[in-house]
């Protein structure tokens, strides 16, 4: 019997070793990632000891810049298409949130929404931004409306793109999210990160998966391998959010644009309707044929309502 257990143990160990060899990836050195993803117009600024990666583009005299916040597992690059157009007439600022992109993890591993709201506040103050138009996608949208509720004098207008905020069951969840929440497996996630998981996770948030190309997948995958990001990804998804925080949404009086991908399976349009009902002053636009990250999947189509929303905003001194 002992011989049988020993053989089974050796077989299991061999399987684990093969998996690690085939699917295991070391962290990519930060300097290597900077050479590829942190070139101009990228800059870095220290916030609470974290070297935050950001881009500040467009009209420097724009007194009320547009600040854009990405979602879970993403980076500032998700707004590249929007920024290329918006920077012609506005000042556009975006950053990699702690835990993602080139910025890396919070020093204290505190990934609560309160921690992110205070991070945004410190970032805006460090950039001497007294008022802005604040926009966010998914997690970034959840941070954006919470920031607006806490610091209403800092936000002129609000843009919510498939934003988090209400407790609801997803129709489909990216496999990376599922693995990062699974006991035992999540402990291996920091060492074993198959590239196909990155592809499947991105495909999950797109309505048209033919738009998920190798370059896009490589960016998501390589930035996930920045030192500390894989553990931070797990830490963030382990946070229990306040299920009653949505009550604060009703206190937001800023003019708000709600943009939603019709085919969003992670945060369905049901949530868009809740925002539409609770926000006192808002416009809702459902984008047919798009998924959870419409600004990335189809920048031109998703930007149309944004341009209309910003048209009457005079931001130049």
Kindly summarize this structure in a few lines.
This protein is an alpha/beta fold and 317 residues long.
CATH superfamily membership: Alpha/Beta hydrolase fold, catalytic domain
Distance between the termini: 82 Å
Uncertain parts: 4-24
Largest sheet: 8 strands, mixed
CATH hierarchy class name = Alpha Beta
What is the CATH topology?
A: Rossmann fold
Sheet with most strands: strand arrangement? 1-2-4-3-5-6-7-8
> In percent, how much strand structure appears in the residues?
15-25%
Name the structural class: alpha/beta
DSSP strand count? 8
Shape: globular
Q: How many helices in DSSP terms?
A: 13
Mean pLDDT across all amino acids: 89
Q: Examine the secondary-structure arrangement and name the CATH architecture.
A: 3-Layer(aba) Sandwich
Report the order of strands and helices. HHEEEHEHEHEHHHHHEHEHH
Radius of gyration: 20 Å
The share of residues in helices is 40-55%
Describe this structure in words.
The protein has 13 helices and 8 strands. With 317 residues, the chain is an alpha/beta fold. The chain has a single domain, classed as Alpha/Beta hydrolase fold, catalytic domain (Rossmann fold, 3-Layer(aba) Sandwich). Strands 1-2-4-3-5-6-7-8 form an 8-stranded mixed sheet, sandwiched between helices.
Task: Tag the structure with descriptive keywords.
alpha/beta; eight-stranded mixed sheet; 13 helices
Sequence-ordered SSE layout with sheet pairings:
Elements lengths: L1 H22 L6 H8 L4 E6 L2 E9 L7 E4 L10 H7 L4 E5 L17 H14 L5 E6 L1 H12 L4 E7 L13 H6 L4 H4 L6 H10 L9 H11 L4 H9 L17 E7 L7 H10 L3 E6 L6 H4 L1 H12 L7
Parallel strand pairs: 3-4, 3-5, 5-6, 6-7, 7-8
Antiparallel strand pairs: 1-2, 2-4
Helix pairs in contact: 3-13, 4-5, 8-9
